[in-house]
């Protein structure tokens, strides 16, 4: 190890020896300086330098061994030129830490995947008693009680639905099936689900679909429309919601327009942010800030653009712009 240490410090040694030789050369050239008078300080300095190297060798190797405690001994004679024991120890520590981090990351990923699978399994299990509850609510004779219970059931149903799709979105591309899809069948199915809630709030829904067929994934498209319709009903009272569709420039446009409380202009750029809720009525603790975020994420995978126009106290208009057939062909080929 001493030899290796001296080899690694050869630049120091060469600099010191060069300076001493230079000093002797100056004494040889300069007649006013006696070379013999310089030999004594050169000898003392050389001796001190050797002692210094030995002391530093002991101190540094002790430090390296302390860092390397608990590890296998390393034969530093086999080190490549230009690398110190310290560099080797640091490299080994970094490699060990990297391996540990990789192992922790792998374990965490496995745990998260397991938790995700458990949650999805739990959601599917909960659907059975939820369906039974719905049937029991439908058999109630007390309309006021029936309406209240159905509203709470619907809230749970929609929250579970959000959780289910939120967990699926990261792998949404593997779940897509693009086909000719009827907007009418999806919209009327969603309206039927929200029917009791709409009656409770005195909301009517007008549907006028000039364009009915689109190329999309029916399941995920239904989820997007569900989020937009749910928001329209949630923030409206005693007014109509208009749902229209038309074709323009070979693109189908689906418009959902309500006359509810609307969205503040300063909030519009942030409505698709994860967890964002209105700053206008921030005390509304029923909002999760996830509906529009999930709708936007889902729409991006389907190449659907969502445009929102709103004015406070006047209502909100959401427009779904479906991709053209050429874009859908690209999506199918992915």
TrEMBL record:
It is found in: Cell membrane. It is an enzyme of class 2 (transferase). The keyword Metal-binding does not apply. Keywords: ATP-binding, Cell membrane, Kinase, Membrane, Nucleotide-binding, Transferase, Transmembrane, Transmembrane helix, Two-component regulatory system. Pfam families: HATPase_c. GO terms for molecular function: ATP binding; phosphoprotein phosphatase activity; phosphorelay sensor kinase activity. GO terms for cellular component: plasma membrane. Residues 121-326 form the Histidine kinase domain. It comes from the Bacteria. It is a multi-pass membrane protein. The keyword Nucleotide-binding applies. One of its GO terms (biological process) is cellular response to phosphate starvation. It catalyses: ATP + protein L-histidine = ADP + protein N-phospho-L-histidine. The chain crosses the membrane at residues 12-31, 37-57. Its EC number is 2.7.13.3. This is histidine kinase. It comes from Alteribacillus iranensis.
């Amino acid at each position: 190890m001493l030899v290796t240490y001296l080899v690694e410090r050869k630049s120091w040694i060469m600099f010191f020896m060069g300076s001493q030789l230079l000093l002797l050369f100056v004494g040889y050239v300069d007649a006013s300086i006696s070379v013999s008078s310089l030999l004594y300080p050169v000898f003392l300095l050389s001796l001190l330098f050797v002692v210094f190297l030995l002391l530093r060798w002991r101190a540094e190797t002790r430090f390296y061994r302390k860092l390397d405690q608990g590890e296998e001994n390393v034969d530093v004679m086999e080190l490549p030129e230009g690398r110190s024991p310290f560099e080797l120890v640091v490299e080994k520590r970094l490699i060990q830490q990297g391996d540990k981090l990789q192992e922790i990351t792998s374990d965490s990923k496995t745990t998260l995947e397991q938790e995700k699978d458990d949650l999805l399994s739990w959601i599917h299990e909960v659907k059975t008693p939820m369906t039974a509850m719905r049937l029991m609510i439908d058999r109630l004779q007390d309309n006021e009680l029936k309406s209240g219970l159905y509203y709470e059931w619907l809230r749970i149903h929609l929250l579970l639905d959000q959780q289910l799709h939120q967990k699926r979105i990261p792998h949404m591309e593997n779940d897509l099936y693009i086909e000719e899809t009827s907007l009418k069948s999806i919209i009327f199915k969603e309206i039927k689900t929200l029917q009791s809630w709409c009656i409770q709030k005195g909301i009517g829904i007008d549907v006028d679909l000039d364009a009915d067929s689109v190329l999309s994934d029916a399941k995920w498209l239904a989820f997007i429309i569900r989020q937009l319709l749910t928001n329209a009903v949630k923030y409206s009272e005693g007014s109509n919601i208009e749902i229209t569709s038309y074709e323009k420039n070979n693109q189908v446009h689906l418009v959902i327009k309500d006359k509810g409380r609307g969205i503040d202009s300063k909030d519009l750029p942030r409505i698709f942010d994860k967890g964002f809720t209105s700053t206008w009525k921030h005390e509304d603790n029923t909002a999760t800030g996830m509906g529009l975020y999930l709708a936007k994420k889902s729409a991006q995978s389907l190449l659907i653009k969502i445009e929102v126009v709103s004015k406070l106290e006047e209502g909100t208009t959401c427009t779904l712009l479906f991709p053209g057939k050429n874009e859908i062909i690209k999506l199918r080929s992915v």
